[in-house]
Amino acid sequence: MKATQIMAVGGIYVDINCPNAPFGNSGLHVEEELVAGDYEEAIGGSGPNFAKLAAHLGLPVTVVAKTGDDRMNSVVGMLLSETRFSPDLIVDRAVSTNVSINMVNAAGAYMSFVGGTANQSITADEVMAKLKPRLSQLSHLYIGGSFKLKALLPGLGAIIQAAKAAGVKVALDHSRIYSTVSDEQKALVRTAVAEVDYYFPSKQEFLQLWAVDSIDEGLHKLGEHTTAITVVKDSDNGALVMHDGEVVRVPAYAVHPIHTVGAGDSFNAGFMVAQADGRSVQESMRFGCAAAGLTISRHEMPTASAIEALVAGGQS
d(Cα 84, Cα 300) in Å, to the nearest integer? Predict the structure, then answer.
């Protein structure tokens, strides 16, 4: 069996995170200035967010992503120096590095404004060029935020097939399905789910992609479509999985969130760390829920001992 070595593919952003932003349920209005106060800069994106925590918890992870050859790329380099994963960036002067301004209000509602073109332009051929030389060493390929990787989607199946042919397990989190996502792109991802080993949608993403009314209905439907371990993340209600023909829920842990950025990616990282440790799916879900809970309730990334303590405390 290969030692755990993960390659994470996804978009990369310079995140500007603004907690306690003063907006209500109606959001923003035209010509309105929103003053959010304090903010922080961080590396963002599904792949990097997953990698930050997985590497912090001891798993070797390489992140493949695309940036522009611009000023923001230098900010990416500075922020990457604060992480523990290994970056392998595709730098292209024809595109611009993605920037995301993320605001969360006191009630936990979320707004995001994104600029840049790099993530949308990364291609399957560019990823393949990074993947193929590593196949003999990799144990897992993690693909995050695939609906945001517009140019990659047509070759998503080929990437997964190349990994599987080399004995590499594949995990997929396709992220939000925006109004600009076409039916053809949804079909490409549904086909990809049939081939992967792990599938990590949120509740809303899951119901929307599979056109079902409940998680239970979707998990039963998906059981006829894929053998992937499908874990549906249901925010503060925990996570659900199909086990022996029954839907099993693992509750979330009671925490006081200070932000929600990267919660789902942190769950995925915790789950994969626990799987690498040989734990069962349900044990891995509890570890993932604790990892996500601590991530959104602290300013620093959680340690393995803090996650274990929350799991052992049984405060779910």
Answer: 14
**Beta strand pairing call for 140-144 and 6-9:** parallel
Q: How many other C-beta atoms lie within 10 A of the C-beta of residue 140?
A: 23
> pLDDT tens for residues 247-265?
999 999 989 887 777 899 9
* Domain 6-27+36-313 superfamily per CATH: Ribokinase (3.40.1190.20)
The strand ranges marked E within the chain are 6-9, 13-18, 40-44, 61-68, 86-92, 98-104, 110-115, 140-144, 169-173, 198-199, 229-233, 239-243, 246-250
Q: Whole-structure pTM over 0.85, yes or no?
A: yes
Read out DSSP for 86-101?
A: EEEEEEETTS--EEEE
How long is the chain? Answer: 316
Q: What is the pLDDT of residues 29-54, one digit of tens each?
A: 888 888 888 898 999 999 999 999 99
Copy the structure tokens of residue 285. Answer: 């879900």
Q: Which among 141, 125, 177 has a CA at the least distance from the CA of 10?
A: 141
Residue 3's CB: how many other CB atoms inside 10 A?
Answer: 8
Alpha-carbon distance 232 to 289, whole Å? Answer: 11
Q: Which residues pair with 232 in a beta bridge?
A: 240
